[in-house]
Amino acid sequence: MTLQGFRIMRRLAAWLCLAVSFAAPFCASAAAEGTEQAGESGAVRPEKTAAWWCSRYAAADAVVLDEAGIAALNERISRASDVWTGAVTTERLASFAELDGAALRRRLAERRPLRRKAYLEGRRMTKADAARFRANLNLDAVPDTVTGRFAVTTAHTSLRSLPTDEGLYDSASPDARYYDNVQDSVLDAGEPVVVWHTSRDRRYVFLRSRTLSGWVACEDVAYCPRADWNRYAAPQQFLTVAGRDLYPAEPGGTWHGTGPRPGYAYGADPASFRGMMLQGSALLYTRLVPAADGAQWEVLLPQRDAAGALTGKKMLLPSGPALRKGYAPYTARQVLDNAMQFLDSVYGWGGDYGSVDCSSFVDAVYRAEGICLPRNSGQIRKAPLHTVSLEGLGTAERLAVLAQLPPGALLHLPGHVMIYLGLQDGVPYAIHSFSSHYVNGKKVYERRVAVTDLLLRRSSGRTFLDELICCQEVR
Predict the structure, then answer these.
(1) Where does a domain end: 234, 260, 292?
(2) Most CB contacts within 10 A, which of 100, 113, 303, 400?
(3) Cβ(408)–Cβ(420) under 8 Å?
């Protein structure tokens, strides 16, 4: 059985014991301000469209940063990142090909999920389980000097903190199953990586991507010379996914599978979104081909041959709005247009379920403009952006700061990041991928991307507004 087959069997087994509570109402304050209630269907309210919010901001179409400005921002973020985490430029990523073996062994040995109480398949993880996971790290095989290999990803694939498809959870409750502590992130096809190490069972490789290091299935990585790697790392001719996602291997680039649409429903077959590319993902193209029913892009999809080497498959995709030549201009309107594409997508912890969590949502939205942000919310908050602290400020002072922010700015709570939309009747609104909030002291799960006000409450009983740590303009 293939590794993907194991994944599917485990995920389906997990879903047999889930009690999904997806549609739960927002608190009364949010509903009163016109934000969407869970389970609502029908016409999109004005407050949920980018055009409505941009109509209230005079500079919505002004370019925030041009190409040179974005390159300078990416360079600044890269310099603030380290070898293991944080967003880095192509040049910095390539420099990680040579690595100290002792440092890599230390990094591999400090895996977070093994340092905490965890549950595995509905039971407490045992010492034998932990020993098995540690053995598969294959630490003895790490040389004193590591020479990395250049490679490219060939599928929408998980990036994990341990070389396993088994999930580790905080409890045995059904709700815990949405939050696999081994799931760190996802990578789309065509992403350049540097591979450092292989697990003992030879099913996983430990690598560095542009935003994070972690374990990826061997079958989803293809090796290549540096020159071929550069084609993906610094492409000269490329298209970006303009909508929420694209399935380039499907006819017309749209979803034609059976069952729930991946990224919009829990319980979807994991194999169904292996061919997905999220917003901002890049596709190499060779030419624009004229056709009677509309021009088509000839694109090159990265693939792995039987020996593990990188090959490419040429195919034609419609030249419609799903694909954009190069990056989008960086304007407030574009950021909000990007963000609204994800409305009602399920919350995907670590990018799981073909969807996004709070920080991968922000990453996708800004990646479409060519901006490479760190992968998790804490790292984004520490990134060298234009940051204003809100700590120690009262509610009125916080509102005064938010009133000066442009749409598209980032708002930070402890462990959470949101995209600011603006004020309506003096109440601040944001769009974000979030898991839960509290109503009358009780936890209410939402687990989706939604437009909400900041009067939702945290476990402390305080509002999102009053627990904001800081706000950031991405410039």
Answers:
(1) 234
(2) 113
(3) yes
